[in-house]
Amino acid sequence: MKRELPPLIAAAVILLGLSLASLLLPDRDFSPNENRYLQQAPRLTTDRIFSGKFTEEAEKYESDQIAYRDLWMGSASWLQRLAGKKDMGGVYLGRDGYYFARLTEDEFPQAQYEKNLRSVDAFFDACNGIDCRVLLAPSPAAVLSDLLPANAPMYDAQLRSEQLTQAVGESRVIDVKEALASLTQPYYRTDHHWTTEGARAAYEAWCAATGHTVREMPLTAVTDSFRGTLYSKVLLPDSARDTISLAETVKVRSVDCDGTVTDSLYDRSKLAEKDQYAVFFGGNWAKVTIDTGVENGRRLLLVKDSFANAFVPFLTEDYETITMLDLRFFAESVPELMAEEGITDVLVLYELSNFAADRNLFKLEPER
Question: How many domains is the chain built from?
């Protein structure tokens, strides 16, 4: 019994210390590591008590606002890894410092994927006289499968690629898997995005498929300390740090991000923040309009997720304007916008699992 007392006392002291620290320290609004807003103190009302909302928010508040949350999350992940665990909160710990988002066959949103494919196909069919293409970047695990933990279950990426081709037609699909697989590092090790080198390889595949000429755009490293979204889920202190590179020679006339106008595709202030990938355009916007300064009569509509942000700089010498839409935030009529801006080309560019889960692609469907 006496031997059991010291560990119990130590545990009690730690819990008491954490409770006191959590009470004394001010609540945090935002977690840079997790890139999300944290639960604030819940409102106590009769309706919220009986609905269960108060209890739910109170539990989340206690978890989000615990003192030194990031430290405890990292310590818990370290202990799990020490015990040999390779799946932590939906993140696989792969070889060579790579982390992979877990998405199994059972978890894949198949019904939504099929619905989104129908929406894109209907949209393309309605775009008379417009060159329409779709590029769904494969998930990192599909390209770097040899770096996954042994026997780690993942969804069938090849099947979804075949379903894409069947739905919209082979001539409209730009396949970039082979181009990405030829690179040393097509994706960041602790983030779900492709590297700028990966985006450039996808651009070259796009050129081959569309008949555009590949333009040489040298890349310059601007940071070597990037840790991404998957790192934020495990917070292991020895997680890899990656380099982000930019095509700095790219020049444009103007960039309008939801009414904020600049003359650059890059927001270097983001390199001092946790989410350094936001150096591309400063993050995600409902609508971005790029006036490239080129005069060739070509105007691109790009329906996208954040993968496109690193891809677009390579297209700036091919179009007069590039209009980027993030359908999560864009609420206006897409056909009306296309008519107003004289769109000649359309590209739908997402990472495949992001595309499958997106519930906003219905906005592309022709108005009935």
Answer: 2
